[in-house]
C-alpha cells in the first residue's frame, strides 16, 4: 500500500513539473516584444493568464477595458447587427478552431471570393482568407441564433439536436459566462470543413477545446484585433482611409449620375447630342446628359474636379460615356420593374392590358400594363412595364410573347383575372385570337374589351351615317385649315383668341369637343379674324374660302348645329374620361353608359327645342346679324312629261 501511494505521489510530482514547464514557456512566448509585421494579426504585446479558470475572466476584463476606451473615441463606428438565418439543416461550428482567421504564418496567399460580401456562414468560406475578409469577420462577430428554440433545431440521425444550453459555460467559481466564439453554419454537415455535430458528447468536446492552447491563443488574437479595428489603430489605416475616400467619391458621383438620368427620363428628354464633348470649355451642344452635368459642376466642387481630371487625362475611366448611360438606365428600369412585380405578388391576382403600335422607325411595339388592387390602400393601380418589339401581330405570336413576359417576371398566368385590349380580329378572334388562347390556358382570365376604343368606333360610325354631321365636322376642319396653312394667319388668331383652334382626329374624340368649344365660345372673334384676313389676302382661292366660311357661319343652321354637337360631345367626353380613369370599375362604367342612354333619349324629345332657344339667345348677344329661323328651302318642281301623265291617269 505504501509503495502504491509513493508511486502515485511520484507521478503527481512529475505532472506538476510538466505543467509548470509548459506554463513558463507560454508566458515567455507572450512576453516577446512584437517586431515589424506585415499584417494586423501579429502577436499581441499583452499578458494574460492562460489557465483554465482565468482565461474567460481575463478576456472579459479585457473587453470591458476595451469598451471604455472605445467609448471615449468620437469616431466610434458600430457595425450593424446581422440577423439573417435560413431555416435549413444547421451544424455547430467553432470559429476559434479556424487558425486561418488568426494565423498569418499559415495563410499568406490571398484570393478573391466570388461573392461580393464576406458571408458569416463558415460553410461558405474559401481558404485562405484575405486580410479584408478577416477584417469583416472580426468586425461583425459570430452569428449566434439565440432566438431559436431548442425544439426548432434539426435532428441528426440519432434523433439528437443542438441546445442553446451550450452557448454558456460554468466556471470553477460558479460564474456563468457566454461563449461568444460559438456559432452555427446553416449549410449541411458534409459541406463544412471543420466543426462539430456530435450532440451527445458536445459538452465534453467544448470543455476540452476551451482548455487547449490553440483556442486560448486564438481568443487573445481575436480580442486584440477587434480592439484595433474599433479604435482605428490598424497599420493599414492610411490605406483604408484613402479607399474610403475613393469609395465615397465614386458613390457621390454615381448618385449624381442616377439623379440626372432620373430627371431626363421623367421629363421624357433625350440624353445624347450630335457632337458630345466632356471638355468644360466646349460650348457646343453635347446632349442633355453631359450639358446638365457641366451645369451642375459649376456649383459642385467634386463634380468639377472630376471633369478637370478627365480633361487633364489623369482619369482613364470617367463613367460618362453612352454605354454607362444605357447600363444605368437598364439597371434603374430593372429596379422599377422589380418593385412593381413585388407589389403584384403581394396581392397575388392581377390583370394585364396591352396594345400594339408602330413607332417612327416602323417597328411594331407592344406595350404591356399590369393592373391590380392594392390591398393595403384599396386603390386600383396600373403600372407600365415596358415596350416589346414584335415581329408578327398574329394571335399566336402575341400570346407567346405575353406568356414569356409574365413568366420572366415571375408571374403565374393562373393568377391572372383579367385581360384587356382593342377589338382587332387578331386580339378577340373566336378561334385564334389572343383572348381565346389565354382563356384556354386560364378560363378565369375574364376578357374586357377596350371600352374607349369601342366607344370611339361607335361614334365614328354614327357620324358617318349622317350627311349633315359629316358636313358640319368637315366645315369645322376647314376653319382650322384656313388659319393653320400660314404662320402669319396663325399669329393673327393667337393674338385675338384665348382658346386655340383644334384639328379633328378620327380616333380621339376629345379633339372634336375641343374644336367645337373653341368656335362656340369665340364665335365673334373668329369672324373678326376672317374679316381681317379678307382685307390682307390677295390670293383669289383663299379669299373665296373666307367668303364661303363666313356665309356658312352666319346661318341659323350652323349656330344650332354647334350647340347640339357641343352638348352631345360634352357628355361623350365625360364618359371617355370616366372609362379611362384608374379608379373605374364595372359598375361605374355600366352606370355611366346607362345614364348617357337615358339622357340621349330625353334629348331627342326636348333637347333639340332647347338648343334652338339657346341658339336664338346666342344670336341676340352676338354683334353680327343672323336670321333667327331656318331657311325655307324651295322644293324644285319638275315638269311632267306626257308619258308620265298617262301612266298616272291609268
UniProtKB/TrEMBL annotation:
Pfam families: DUF4371. Residues 230-430 form the DUF4371 domain. SUPFAM superfamilies: Ribonuclease H-like. InterPro entries: DUF4371, RNaseH-like_sf. This is Zinc finger MYM-type protein 5-like. It comes from Aphis craccivora.
